Amino acid sequence: MFGTDLLRTRAAATPDRTALELAESTWSYRDLDSAVDEMAASLAAVGPDDTARVAVALPSGVSFVSTIHATLRLGWELVPLNTRLSASELADRLDRLTPDIVLCASETESLIAEAQEHQSHVETADHRRYTVEKPSQPDTAELPTGSPPADAEPHDPAETALVLFTSGTTGEPKGVRLTVRNLTASAFASALRLGVTPSDRWLCCLPMYHMGGLAPVIRSALYGTTLVVQPKFDAEQTATVLDSAGITGVSLVPTQLTRLLAAGVSVPDLRTVLLGGAPASAELLDRADEAEIPVYPTYGMTETASQIATARPGDHHNHPGTVGQPLYGTSVTVLGSDGKLRSAGERGELVVSGPTVTPGYLDASQTEVAFSEHGLHTGDLGYRDEDGRLWVVGRVDDTIITGGELVSPATVGDVIRSAPGVEDVAVVGISDEEWGERVAAALVSDQTDARELIERVEDHCREQLAGYKIPRQMRVVDSIPRTQSGTIDREAVRELLAG
Prior knowledge:
The mean pLDDT is 92. This protein is α/β, with parallel strands linked by helices. Helices cover 32% and strands 26% of the residues. It contains 15 helices and 27 strands. The strands form six sheets. A nine-stranded mixed sheet has the order 2-1-11-10-12-13-14-15-16, with helices on both faces. The radius of gyration is 23 Å and the shape is globular.
């Protein structure tokens, strides 16, 4: 469908068009193409002679954008790392990846150094840790300059170009393999649903280690539009950019949109707010309508290179709660627990197929479990109407979605259970006006000082879990409510926590 070196193709076609804006700096497509050549040369100077895997822990910015395109140009695999994770969580991912190069910056260098110290089977000499800035940690080297390799071969469209980690239905982090074909098919289908003009300016304020922040990097190069990068979301600053920088599109999660509305955001040029990562309430969509903010509620996942289905502004009035119809080329089947197809209006697991769907995970056994003759099993429960509109009503498992991040109750429970003094625990999601859900836990302990226990558990969680996984609410109870079969009665746990 498209060439694999998207940026080089775009730079040849529209070299003077603005590609990237960050703070007060601007890069044309010609400028960005040169920056990518430099990054490709630097990576080639320290990488192996053939295909390499590059793990990246960089803040959203020109270095990250250049690295994305440089690995595509070299035909290498890129693995963005979630820098909100703890060092031990990152160590697990690095152990499973065995990257040839780990690339960091000043604000992530110490975290990556600590993560590599936690790795179970890698010696310091094999860390191959480089920084795009001046190193501050032992065993970190500055990324050198070099000459662009003359024999570099961009990816075959069907080869793995990108690996992104996501939480699976069991809480086991899954390494999702995505190809150039997946990425370009997603960009093409998104353009058909949202519309694109040459003057579009897309604001990227989601982290680039997530699909929602990385997808605009690929799509802007394909479309020839401008990507405006804000390294971190801040309601007041983001509102200012939306008001004054001619932004026509932005990807947000519901928590961010809620904060922007509270900040009194003005959007004179905005045509598209792609709202995903978590369900959007009817109240939030109504408030966006009142503020004349054009919201496209979307349902997607890393395994499909972003969007699966996307509704149009105003659809929630006639079809409350819908995430819209599947995008071009995407098919969604609804299967019951008995494996039989469900008719319109009947609930079941959503199973997706099409050119955006991953060829599989790093772990072949996870791939085998996730796919059937109907496609990829999403783990999401939902239904469709006669016209193909989709509704997502929950999860097959108990995954918590807080601020657009997936949290496995089992993973959090295992960490809490290992804390001194904890005999039993139940972790649940509780409705939260700002975050959609918040993580909460009921603890059983023979200790009498509940406050001291909770403080100890919080400290224990901080050492092993990302901040968004740490329970925001904990309570010591006499026992964990369970069903007759012995499983945790999650509704009863929620009632205990609310009491």
